[in-house]
User: Fold these one by one.
Assistant:
Number 1:
Amino acid sequence: MEEVAVKKTSEIEEKEDPIVVYKDVHKSFGDIEVLKGINLEIKPAEKLALIGPSGSGKTTIIRLLMTLEEPTSGDIIVNGKNLWKMEKNGKLVRANEHHLRNVRGEIGMVFQHFNLFPHMTILENCTVAPIHVKKESKEKARERAIEMLERVGLKDKLHNYPSQLSGGQKQRVAMARALVMQPKIMLFDEVTSALDPELVGEVLEVIRDIANTGKTAMVLVTHEMDFAKDVADRVLFLDKGVIAEEGTPEEVLQNSKNERLQSFLRRFRG
Amino acid sequence: MKWNWETFFDALPFILPGLGVTVGLTFACYLFALVFGFFWTFLRRIPIRTINWTVTWVMEFIRSTPPLVQLFFIYYAWPMIPGIGVTLSPFTSAILGLGIHFSTYIGEIYRSGIESVEKGQWEAAKALNFSTVDKWRKIILPQAIPPTIPMLGNYLIIMFKEVPLASTIGVAGILLMANTYGARNWAYLEPLTIVGIIFLLLSYPSAILINKLEKRMNRRFDKEMAFVKEEVKNA
């Protein structure tokens, strides 16, 4: 069992260039350094789980990739392009919005608090970006949105507004909204943390579905350890701004000798 | 001096034609302020400290000076400035003077509306890679503006009541007509009473209307919340 999992990762590593590379990435908020030198490679279609105590910097890692925060130093390379820096007159300078828009298109994100657009119907939530960002025709965008909403089990809610949905339904819409943009990398920021316990299952089910069928790389910041073990190819344990442990789910979640990780995991097992 | 109904009915047809000018000027100023308000709001969002600082102080200056002084400045003083001086008609001066004055308040209302849009909405717009223009057009403004509509409506009434200031530079609204009638016939009581009644008749129902609008918008929000609670209960 363990061997099979290890082989799975190494196979991917050999075959393909990474789609995302973090090179010595630091991030400070004021005086507090939340990321202290992150080095990380994500392969295409790889499913990566980030775990760690709150304040360990795991959410910041993906927020940097989504360009919601700017790194203090270091480089993030997406699909061979430097995300936060661009070339100008032969020199690397801070990226402008135009450059960020070009690179950011590869990335999609699902948020802890859904962030659906409250003034739009469910269908409009899923068509507005394809129409205005990807310049798809209204018919095509509509068709694909309906298809995606059907996949997440919400075809009967097309003309409802977000306020009329439960948390689990909202989160499934948020996933459909991100998926219709066909990102190469999907980021999930504690997407079940704001949900009532009985609604967590339906959301995890959709993520599992995306993981099983898609060629999309996925980075999951999560507290659902069992789920991480199931879905992830690789698990990263973050602690105090550094990657403290890294490996297959079995290596990290079961066989690690790291004491901080052990005590972190004990809290989840209760 | 005694109240004279004859004077009253004599003054009424003399004053009423000025109503079109008063109402027209109100809407013209209001429209100007609504559009120009955006100008302030977006200027202030430019993330360059000197621009932000300058804009804030210019707005503060405009709001802290009486609109009457600004009106006089535009009508009487501006034409005398060599090089950039332009002579404007009283009506245009009034639109510019009152419009700019109130646009600073309207701009603040827009700002409060924009600040009320949750941070998550901006982040979602970014995550979906919207262009700056589409982000404002499709995501931010449709959420920022509706809650401010009652406040914007109140400003329409406030401006309506400030528009008579324009009579001082010769805009022939109802106040100037009443004053003219008074001077000609040495009878101010009746014409000015008429002006008061006209303002009351227009302002009060408008205020009620806006109040209703505000309540209806609040109710719509409450209804949505009730629906959510019910859904959660059923789930």
Number 2:
Amino acid sequence: MSCNTLTLIICGDVINVGFRRHVWRYAKLMNLRGLVVNVDEASCVSIYVEGSEESLKIFSEKIMSLTKSFNISNVDMILSKDSCKSFEDFEIYNYLKDLASSDKGFRLSKELEKILKTKCLI
Amino acid sequence: MINAPDQDVLEKLYQNMRDFANRYGFKIIDVPRPSRGRLLLGATVVGEIDRRPPMFDDHVKDDMMIIVTRPFGELAPLNIYLASIIDQSIINDLEREGIDLSDLIKAKDHAYTTISTPNISAAKTIYKYLPEINEDPDPENHIMTTTDVTGPGIYVFVELAEKIKSIIELEDIPLMFPKFSEFATKYFIMPNATAGTNGAFVIISHRNIAESLIKDLRREGLEPKIIGRILRTKASEPRLRAPRNIIRYVADKKILSYIKIY
């Protein structure tokens, strides 16, 4: 099944400051599925969500509104149409390796790693 | 260990830390500090005990009591307050639920006071129910095991069940601020609104001493409560059974999946 997906990579002072909690809140309020994970080595978080084009647009605006309250140095946003990863919920992960070892997260963790490497973040 | 954006703040923090340590008779041991240029506070507390610490998991028996030294979930008003500074729509949500901002501020201040007070009185009471260093633990007269309800909140009972290989049944989930824990769950402010810090202690003891333990804890100004019991030890599938109202306080489905809700 094909999905609209949004991948965000947000860098700055975003680790262990409650940033992921806000991302989780917006995703849950909008009933979106996916995850947010720390990328410690790059001082970034990665966000992956699936949903309608419209909901992903609203979600990205909400996430961008957080940049006023946190010290953000860089934001990368990738909107695409991809195969669904069938997440049943929106979850918070501490590390990419936790995501890689989860049932559904292995493929996504590899994709995120590839994006992070392309952008020279890891 | 402290770190701060500038020397003035660092000095102020250090003075506060010294005052706090003096108040409770603690000795500060200086360690090298990372100069990260941002606010960072951390403490590892080392204590000494001349009795056997309550780590007698193998002596836990069926029908022993689960006691908490006070209600937990104190992080709910703190998280709502901090989240509302970043996202002001939360203030509207509070209004919609008929909650006054002044109530939130009052609860937040109460939570701050609670978590900044060391659990010394609870620790002293627990000490009274421990065996001497050269004594065998007596399951009917000593506390068998303890843990603290911190960040994981209700999930500590899942961890405890696994650690002592038992089925734990809770009949009550005593929260300091149930109204705010429920709000934090409903509006997805916290995945687990039963979380605390510097939290309540969980005690497992025989029912013979539960009553006097509770009396002693009350005398220290705490709000202890028997909240459940050990349903079965040596369980092949250790688990936590908790009442249905837990879903009002935990939004994280992963955490709920570890709990058998009845």
